[in-house]
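Quiz preparation item.
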């Protein structure tokens, strides 16, 4: 018998998020231990008359690849990787891990080499183009596991309950709740699409971003689950000021704490961290990682705590996040980079606010529009 909550989640994914239809080829990847999640998804996909391709990942393989590969091997792009970007109609990534810190001992330069391969960057452009056109729909979903529960300082039972509530799986009809989020955020998006400048004020923060002509995106369960954010891509050379982030940035399992960035004409000109300065410096050396590819506000107030898992954390109600590196084509962003790294700021603290063209639109974690 399929776990009832996983069956609910599979229905949300197949019917609401991906809108799977007869004849679609749906790729599913994730850790091999998420067997019951694979089963729930496969069952719903088959009910639609679609086809599935399951590619489970095995423990230890990623670490061994980075540890023993030569630069030539890191740059190799196999046929499956090409197929994911060019052939699939739908793609599901099950997000779970046996060890979130498995790459902590890997040289960041080796990761950068793999990401900077020209063919891989070209495939990312194809992926983004197919995604923007609707030809390819994709979704990232969570699977409760001991490792993520431990990272979040919870036992597995508490963490599973946390995950279920963040996905509305505790409701009789989760799809209806995701549809309501979509509708509620439409008015915010409509307002922001007419804004030229965003001004963020808060703890050690005074940052302005030009968003003139850029499109804001309504995130309501069609790309990530859980979801809940509105975002855009700032104009690349018109970000100025400084910002201090409240939460640690997580980069391949490595924590960078108390991050402070100063921007001038769109580029990071000063970057400090209380912990992880060397890693922060390495990230900023990656192509176009000194520019912002995304500015976003989290809107899921059902997610009530920071868990060191970006799938949840970037949706945390009462926060904003900025991403260094890759910007999304659908927003109008032109920033191309092998990296897209999200960092969060708590906006519930006294004095925290966001202004749009000089008008207060957000204050201490709550929308004013």
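Solution:
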């Amino acid at each position: 018998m399929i776990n009832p909550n996983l069956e609910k989640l599979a229905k949300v994914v197949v019917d609401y998020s991906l809108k799977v239809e007869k004849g679609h080829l749906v790729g599913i990847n994730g850790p091999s231990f998420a067997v019951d999640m694979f089963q729930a998804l496969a069952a719903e996909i088959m009910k639609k008359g679609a086809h599935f391709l399951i590619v489970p990942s095995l423990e230890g393989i990623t670490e061994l690849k980075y540890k023993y590969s030569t630069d030539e091997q890191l740059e190799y792009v196999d046929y499956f990787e090409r197929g994911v970007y060019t052939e699939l109609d739908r793609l599901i990534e099950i997000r779970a891990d046996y060890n979130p810190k498995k790459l902590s001992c890997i040289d960041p330069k080796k990761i950068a080499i793999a990401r900077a391969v020209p063919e891989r960057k070209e495939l990312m452009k194809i992926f983004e183009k197919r995604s923007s056109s609707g030809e390819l729909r994709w979704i990232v979903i969570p699977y409760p596991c001991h490792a993520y529960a431990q990272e979040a300082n919870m036992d597995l039972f508490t963490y599973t309950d946390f995950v279920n509530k963040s996905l509305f799986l505790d409701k009789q009809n989760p799809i209806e709740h995701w549809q309501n989020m979509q509708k509620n955020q439409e008015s915010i998006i409509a307002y922001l699409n007419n804004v030229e400048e965003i001004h963020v004020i808060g703890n050690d923060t005074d940052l302005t971003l030009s968003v003139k002509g850029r499109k804001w995106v309504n995130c309501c369960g069609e790309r990530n689950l859980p979801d809940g954010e509105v975002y855009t891509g700032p104009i690349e050379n018109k970000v100025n000021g400084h910002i201090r982030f409240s939460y640690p940035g997580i980069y391949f399992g490595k924590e960078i704490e108390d991050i402070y960035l100063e921007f001038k004409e769109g580029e990071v000109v000063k970057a400090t961290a209380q912990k992880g300065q060397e890693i922060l410096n390495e990230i900023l050396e990656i192509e176009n990682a000194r520019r912002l590819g995304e500015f976003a506000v989290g809107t899921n107030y059902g997610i009530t705590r920071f868990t060191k898992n970006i799938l949840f954390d970037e949706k945390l109600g009462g926060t904003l996040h900025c991403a260094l590196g890759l910007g999304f084509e659908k927003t109008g962003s032109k920033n191309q980079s092998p990296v897209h790294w999200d960092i969060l700021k708590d906006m519930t603290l006294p004095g925290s606010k966001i202004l749009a063209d000089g008008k207060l639109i957000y204050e201490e974690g709550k929308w004013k529009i």
